[in-house]
Amino acid sequence: MRKLMMAVVAVSGLGLMAGCKSNNVEEKREDVAEARQDVAQEQQSAQQEVAEARQDAQKDVLDAQKDLTEEQRELAAAENQQLNDAARTDDATGGSGMANVKTEEVEGTIQSTSGNTLKLIVPDKNNQVMQFQANSQVRVMKDDKPVALKDLKAGDEVRASYQLDSSGKMILQSIEVEKMSAQHPGQKKE
């Protein structure tokens, strides 16, 4: 009997042990299921964060594009205003510097100079005398070097370029001395 008892206890112990193992496996399965659920929730949360970050980035890009477009419009308006202001200034100063004004060229002999006025005798126009106005932008050259308008004398042979302003005045753009007159002492006549 004693042996029988021991056998019953042994069988019961084995049964309990099997029951414990069964409970451990069940608990582990539940733990794995919970872990899987946690991972799925973390993945979903991460995907939401990525989607929100993309939306924020797209919004930032759109805002930057709008700002750039607005700045380009403002720049174009400022450039347009500057061109309009320059055109008005050119009109007020006799048309110098306007891109749509034709530049004419003439060769002749200086009859006289006074202040900012120059009179030129043009032989190919029946010795017609042409009167020009000079401003501070006029370019005066002799021997490829700049000189002052006041340095020119009667008798100097020159080539002059000019433009007509809105009132019909001839505005000198540049003048180049071809030959100096005999009235320039100490300088060779070419």
Can you tell me about this structure?
With 190 residues, this protein is of the alpha+beta class. The chain has 2 domains: 1-92; 103-179, OB fold (Dihydrolipoamide Acetyltransferase, E2P) (Beta Barrel). Helix content is 48%, strand content 25%. The chain has one helix at residues 2-92, and strands at residues 103-114, 117-122, 128-133, 139-142, 145-146, 157-164, 170-179. It has a 5-stranded mixed barrel with strand order 1-2-3-7-6. The protein is rod-shaped, with a radius of gyration of 49 Å. The mean pLDDT is 80.
Low-confidence stretches: none
**Quaternary status:** single chain
**What does the average pLDDT come to?**
80
Strand line-up in the sheet with most strands: 1-2-3-7-6
**Number of strand segments:** 7
Short description:
The protein is an alpha+beta fold and 190 residues long.
Structural key phrases:
48% helix, 5-stranded mixed barrel, 1 helix, alpha+beta, 2 domains, OB fold (Dihydrolipoamide Acetyltransferase, E2P), 190 residues, single chain, 7 strands
Topology:
Elements: H1 2-92, E1 103-114, E2 117-122, E3 128-133, E4 139-142, E5 145-146, E6 157-164, E7 170-179
Parallel strand pairs: 3-7, 4-7
Antiparallel strand pairs: 1-2, 1-6, 2-3, 4-5, 6-7
